[in-house]
Amino acid sequence: MKTTSTINRRNLLLGASPTAALMIVGAATTDSAIAKTATTTVDYVPTFFNAVEWSFINAAVDRLIPSDGRGPGGLETGVPEFMDRQMELPYGHGAYFYLQGPFQPDAPATLGYQLRYTPREMYRSGIAAANNACRTAAGKAFADLTPDEQDQFLALLEKNQVQFSGPPAAAFFAQLLENAREGYFADPLYGGNRGMAAWKWIGFPGARADFTDWIDQAGRKYPYGPVAISGARD
Fold first, then answer.
1. Residue 6 confidence (pLDDT) above 50
2. Is the CA virtual torsion 153, 7, 182, 80 positive or negative?
3. What range does the domain containing 112 cover?
4. If 0-12 CB within 10 Å is exposed, 13-18 middle and 19+ buried, where does residue 91 land?
5. What pTM did the predictor assign?
6. Is residue 63 part of a domain?
7. Using one digit for the tens of pLDDT, what is the confidence trace for 39-66?
8. Residues sharing a CB contact under 8 Å with residue 28, sequence separation 6 or more, in sequence order
């Protein structure tokens, strides 16, 4: 794992986010205020991921959405909790996927999902394969690598340059990154975006009934805090 990491983690997170149009220019909350709403003190016991898998998920999320940037990190906003909860819902069991063959693992992304794995199966098989690859290369599981080594390994996964016994490495990385993004920006009802910290960072109004007056005011700060589906406010 000598390859230099090509992952710009914060840009990866924001680049494909559905809320990217509301970037930092629209933020109405300071970073220090956001930090007060995002905390790592909340205890959560995973129901799907086992202890080894949970260590992997937390370590990977910490590198994909780090806390050493302008916005809150993935761990303090509860992204791993979101991901674990999703595995117990119909999504995790593949209810929204077409899972009948023929399967085409080399098909272009424009043709949609072409693999046989449900999200649960993707994680279970992918994490085991990733840890095996890390042990072969460095003698340690992914969670025990240094942050730089973890970045390098994630970059190799993204480029499909790790040999997996299960799903393609790039497909596993894509699943991991997609769910991390979703957990970061989803309503807190689903376990992530704790304290609406990610919404506060980008100035997203959340589930407010009406904010149409601000749609065409690009670059102007949104003056009101977000509202969650539950009715919770800033």
1. no
2. positive
3. 9-214
4. middle
5. 0.81
6. yes
7. 444 689 999 999 999 999 999 999 999 9
8. 200, 203, 221, 222, 223, 224, 225
Cβ atoms of residues 143 and 58 within 8 Å = yes
Q: How sure is the predictor about 161, in pLDDT bands with cuts at 50, 70 and 90?
A: very high
pLDDT at 154 over 90: yes
Residue 32 confidence (pLDDT) above 70:
no
Domain count, the chain: 1
How many whole angstroms separate alpha carbon 214 and alpha carbon 184?
23
Helices (H), 38-192: 51-64, 79-87, 119-138, 147-158, 169-185
Find, among 14, 4, 7, 2, the residue nearest to 204 by Cα.
14
- Which of 50-64, 93-107, 164-178 holds the top average pLDDT? 50-64
Examine residue 108 and say whether the peptide bond preceding it is cis (omega within 30 degrees of 0).
no
CB atoms within 10 A of CB 211: 14
Q: How far is Cα 147 from Cα 220, in angstroms, rounded to an integer?
A: 37
Question: Which two three-digit tokens encode residue 215?
Answer: 């749609």
Query: Is residue 146 domain-resident?
Result: yes
Angstrom distance (rounded) from CA 19 to CA 191:
18
